[in-house]
Specification:
single chain; transmembrane helix; Cyt_c_CcmB_bac; about 0% strand; about 220 residues
């Protein structure tokens, strides 16, 4: 079982790196948003420091939506998803491997670039540490919750707009707590409560999302 799941993970990772244009597109979008936003509001260091956490998180959410539609799209289109379902592998485990692959190829580059983004937006060291913690806890939540909506819309043509309409309201609480943690760090205030709430949201998603994703995929194929 573990070798088969490892095979699913390696296959998805290889396919992701073959589609270099789709792989790079969300990252380029994120960089453009973070780069162009200061030109619209002004280059003042205090202004950039004030809006920086929100800009990075909004860009992360929007860029994740760009790449999320392809999570199950190709497998659904060529029948691979149906074959995986008939293979006897637990569909929730297959979905978990796909979500893990999506998180790695979408958000690890963001974490690697985060020092540059923090420097560009004039974030302090304390703010950067809080930002990285929120990204480490919050971005897996984006992938897990987003995959449920992707499973529900995978069989629809032009489901990207519907996907955005479903997910953006759901991601608002995460955005609020994540930016609140970084703002508290900027004021030298404790932000353990915000981190604990994001961590609790992630644990709940890890427990419930795989089964919900599997159910949504079964509904889409019926």
């Amino acid at each position: 079982m573990s070798s088969l799941m490892g095979g699913v993970f390696k296959r998805d990772l290889a396919l992701a790196f073959r589609q270099k244009a789709e792989l790079v597109q969300p990252l380029m979008f994120l960089l453009m948003v973070v780069t162009l936003f200061p030109l619209g509001v002004g280059p003042g260091p205090d202004t950039l420091q004030l809006i920086g956490p929100g800009v990075i998180w909004i860009a992360a959410i929007l860029s994740s939506l760009m790449g999320m539609e392809r999570l199950f799209r190709d497998d659904f289109a060529d029948g691979s998803l149906e074959q995986l379902q008939l293979s006897g592998l637990p569909l929730y485990a297959v979905a978990t491997m796909k979500v893990l692959c999506h998180w790695l190829v979408t958000f690890i580059p963001l974490l690697i670039l985060s020092p540059l983004l923090a420097m560009f937006l004039n974030l302090t060291v304390d703010m950067y540490i809080a930002l990285v913690i929120t990204l480490l806890l919050g971005t897996p939540l984006l992938s897990l919750v987003g995959a449920i909506a992707v499973g529900l819309t995978v069989g629809l043509q032009r489901g990207g707009v519907l996907l955005a309409l479903l997910l953006i309201p759901v991601f608002i609480p995460l955005l609020i707590f994540a930016t609140s943690a970084v703002d508290a760090a900027a004021l030298q205030l404790p932000y353990r409560a915000q981190i604990a709430i994001i961590g609790a949201m992630l644990l709940i998603a890890m427990a419930l999302a795989p089964a919900a994703i599997a159910y949504s995929l079964k509904v889409s194929q019926n």
